[in-house]
Amino acid sequence: MKTLFLAGALLKAWLRSRTGVFFSFLFPVILLLVFGSVFGGGAQAYNIWVQNLDLENGQPSELSSSFVRALENSGVFSVREVPPSAEIHSWVRKNLPPFTSYRVIVIPENFGRRAIGRGIQVRTGVILSTLDLVVRNYGEFLTENDLSAIENGRLALENWRKMLPPENASILLLTQEGDQAAPIVRSAVAGVVQAFNNLLVGAEPAVQVEQVSFSERSLKPADYYMPGYIAAFIMTNGVIGVSSTVSEFRRSGILKRMAATPLSKRSWILANLIVQVVLALALMTVMLLLGRLIFGTAGIPNVYFVLLILLGALVFCTIGITIGCLLRDAEAATAAGNLIAFPMMFLSGAFWPVDIMPELLQTVARFIPLYYFHQGLRELLVSGEPGRAAGAFVVLGVLACIFILLSIRLTKWKEI
Amino acid sequence: MMVRKVIEVKNLVKRYGDILALSGVSFEVYRGETFALVGPNGAGKTTTVEILECLRIPTSGEARVLGMDVTEQAEEIKRRIGVLPQEFSTFERLTVEENVSLIAKIYNREDNVRRILETFGLWDVRKRMFGSLSGGMKRRVGVAMALVSEPEIVFLDEPTTGLDPQARQDLWQVIRELRRKATTVFLTTHYMEEVEALADRASLILSGRILVTDSVSKLISRYGGGFRINTRGRKAAQLLRKLGGEVVSQNGEVTAVFKSQGEALEALLILRKSGIEARMIEPSMNEVFLNLAGGRINERGEMVP
């Protein structure tokens, strides 16, 4: 009862501190809104510039413009046009701002004609080899007349085929050095080209890809990064917020005032933990609600998700208490908190998929507690199966034990 | 009323690493009295109080509060004492009432909050944030927090340090009230006037050693240097010598010391009748401290020669 009352008082005092509320609550929410708006639009459309040099009477040829339409319809690109009269390199330098990612496709002159010619050439090649196959396999069933008719036709076709242009029609894809999206763009363009090729040679698709997501609910990108945000800010609230609060309690004499009462050290620590757990749950609720209302996230937290939130809040709050006890000066504690929290935040991949980080950093991430926290939360939010977050429960459970003991050991109730 | 020792300190030693903060401190405090531990900064006042409050562990020696050993029965002692820590502060963003209620809750004495706020003149400011109060008011909240549990002993560590004279007077009034209610008050201070104004008995402490412990009136009569009369002229010196004073004269400046106030007042009257200007200086704790410690304590609590 006393502990709860104390926790209530601590919470009230905290709620009245504007900077505290800002950094622990509003700042995460603002970041969510900002990041959410930047990355939240679902799969990203890549900017691509197209210069169509394949003109007939000043107009783009039918085939080249249908190629451009195919790029647009792929859903991967947002296509913009470069005037045909421009010299491409100087146009890029002059018109595209530096440091923006762009890719340029140049459709050369005679693209349509070559493509059609090459298409017919391929088709005739197919006919010829089909005829060969027919003669070889079924020749004995055919009459002399039929065979010589086929042979005549074959010769005529072969002669005619020699007149067609031999080289492939090609397009030019220009990318920037260091453009991380270049491989994605290249394969997407290749996909369009492939589909186009099939169309030209009249091949029906034999194999197609159907995309099905693992979860029954339709997940939004925000479902992916939301657990990262929640985890990261529960972490900073503990590691930065609690550490400075704890050393501030000591500096201001509040700790001594409390220690001079019959209140036990454990009750004091417990009250502080309760405050952080309540804060973490509130942060979780607000973030998930905002995610749902604004970004249409579909993930629904189950009881294991809430349990993992509690465990994470315990771990990072007790880490904060440990730092606050070890460093006597509130400023030093805040500095140390930052020093620990920020690398943890960025290296753990809380804000972006770990897979896009270099392999060395991916290894580093696996040594960071926050990594297990946000991965675990993500698994629970997406799959809802506690088994998939077992690792997170184990790692955070062990850490909670260690840091709860350290907090009790290091918090001074005498010789303050 | 039975006179009973509520605090007993014997040969208390406290060492912080290489620094010896207390080297064998002994004194006793009796029920119902206001006891002052007097000395400059760094003398060991706060160390002593915090050992008695069970906030520090003595290196050696014995300290008993209400008959209980501070190292063995800390929780029970804490339940029965009240504490105003040095440079007291509490939650700035809780109101006066919330702060007092928090402590009351810890002692299960929420019933006492209203009464204590009214007693200390805090009822009208109960909704104000602690952080927005003046220094004097803050200290008053601190005393209220120390007393809301109706403790048997209240420890006030430098209760008026840093307060303006008016706030100090107000707080003295509050502390005098406590003695009237027979609460034992243990206070530390470096203000000699405070000792005179509040304390029944006092210990003088310097460099971790007790110089003397006695009732304030006995300290003053024994070490206060007597009642002094300051005047000028050879005639005055002769008169004063004749009246039984110990006379020292230098460059025409005359100082005579009398044992009792009566003798000194009589001499003053005779001098005035003879048309000689003179004034009397009563002995004070300032003199006591000067005589015993060989120096004075300035406003900031520092020892000065």
Question: What's the short version?
Answer:
The complex is a heterodimer of chains A (416) and B (305). Chain A has 15 helices and 6 strands.
Kindly describe this structure.
The complex is a heterodimer of chains A (416) and B (305). Chain A is an alpha/beta fold. Chain A has three domains: 2-39 and 220-415, no CATH class; 44-108 and 171-216, 3-Layer(aba) Sandwich (D-Maltodextrin-Binding Protein, domain 2); 123-168, no CATH class. Chain A has helices at residues 2-15, 18-39, 62-73, 88-95, 111-138, 144-162, 182-200, 221-252, 254-259, 265-295, 303-326, 330-347, 359-365, 369-382, 390-410, and strands at 46-52, 55-56, 59-60, 77-82, 103-107, 172-175. Chain A has a four-stranded mixed β-sheet, with helices on one face. A two-stranded antiparallel ribbon of chain A has the order 2-3. In chain A, helix 11 (303-326) packs parallel to helix 15 (390-410). Chain A starts with a helix and ends in a 6-residue tail after the last helix. The mean pLDDT of chain A is 86. Chain B has 305 residues and is an alpha/beta fold. Chain B folds into two domains: 5-221, Rossmann fold, CATH 3.40.50.300; 224-286, Alpha-Beta Plaits (2-Layer Sandwich), CATH 3.30.70. Chain B has eleven helices and 16 strands. Chain B has a six-stranded mixed β-sheet with strand order 6-7-8-3-9-10, with helices on both faces. A four-stranded antiparallel β-sheet of chain B has the order 2-1-4-5, with helices on one face. A four-stranded antiparallel β-sheet of chain B has the order 12-13-11-14. The mean pLDDT of chain B is 93. Chains A and B meet through helix 1 and helix 9 of A and helix 2 and helix 3 of B.
